Each structure stands twice: as C-alpha cells, then as structure tokens.
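Researcher: Structure for this, please.
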Amino acid sequence: MLLDIPLCTQTTDFTCGACATLMVSKYFDGNVQLSKRNEFLIWTEIVALPFKFSSPYRIIAFFIKKGFKTKLIMKQGTSDKGEILLECCQIDPAERKLFIDFFKAHTRILKRHITSAIVDRNPTLRDIRRALSNHNPVIALVDSYYTTKMRGARNPPHLPHWIVVKGYKNKRFYINDSIQERGLKNGKIIMEEQILETAMNTYSRFRWPSALIIVGLTVNKRKTLKKRNESYIKQGKKDE
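Model: Predicted structure, token format:
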C-alpha cells in the first residue's frame, strides 16, 4: 500500500508540522501549492502557542475545520511540566512558568472542541497500517534522530519531529521527511518497522506522548482516492 503524497521540505527548523500538514492537504487537493507561503499560513494555524512547534491538537483542529474525518491517537495526561518544550524553544528561565501556564490553558480550551476526535491511548504500527489500508495518510510524531540518521547525518540531535507515513509493505514503511539540510539524502525514505517503532517512542526521550494523526474522507471521496493510488502504484512511482 502506497499513497501518492508529495514531499515538501521545510524552510525553518520549526515548521515540520506545517509541512506535514501541507503534504497531506496536497494529497487530498491537487490545487494546493507546496509553497513557503502556504507553509507559514498553515504554521500560524497549528502553532502550539506560545511556543514555535506544532500542536497535535491544532493540527487535527485544522483538518476538522476543513471537513475531514480526523483522529488523534495519543495518550492523554502523560506529558511532564514542559521542560523539553522549553529547551527546544530556548525559553528564558525567568519566563518559564508564564509560558507553561499559557500553554496549558490554551491546550485545555482547544481540547474541549475536539474531544470526540481524540483516542486516549498510545498509538501502534497497526494503527498506521489500518489507516493506510483505508487510503488515509498518517502524520506521526517521532524522534528526528532516526530519520536524519537514515538520510546520512553523522551525529544528528534528538528532537521532536513530525513526518508523514504514506505507505507500507511487509515490515517496511514509506516516509516523507521534510527536514532540509546540506548533505542529507532525499527526504523520501523507507524505514524498517522496528526503527519506526523506536522513533515513535517520544515519551522515553522527551517526556511527550507518542502521537498519530489520521486524516480521512467521506466514503465517496475515498473511492476516488483509491483509484488514483492504484494508478500511482501501477505506474511504478515507488520510492527507492
């Protein structure tokens, strides 16, 4: 199973979520442009205020607002006080409590409007396979160390990172990784299931729960996409 999802490369170190959202949007609507303008327009809608990274809750809210059947699989109530978020965003220690309090309050308000789209448990590879079999793309939170290491980085940092999972075959998964750095190989990569599963274990590294965002359509629109994906596979446009 392989979905026809194009690769979009991020232009900053904090817009991976926006690029993942943009790739999925392009998959559903060919008129969507993979542009820097759209990258930042989407980022302004999904940013986890007051930080720079992308919020899983705001990503699903973005797709719900546009009429998509969206689901977030993420264990609730397991994140810590946000120290890793502060470290990644280089927050002044003097403003630590202010930022965390704002972030928590904003998240609580947002979650009230998307409760029905949240599945309160840890995601699995089985969830990914099931979604892709239904022609639904998956946005996954991972440790970027594993994707950039596969692309040739010698000693990459461990950072929270959003990727798009667009296909699988046996025990291998097809990934679109938006990170763009000099010397890295193409962002279309194939990961063994064991590596992907390790990369998805963000809680052990960042104290932030693993997260999968599954985006789907109505039955009729899904049939149209199914035909398009079948044609895509037949043409042999598979990732190396």
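Researcher: Any notable elements?
Model: The mean pLDDT is 87. The chain has one domain: 16-47+55-80+116-234.
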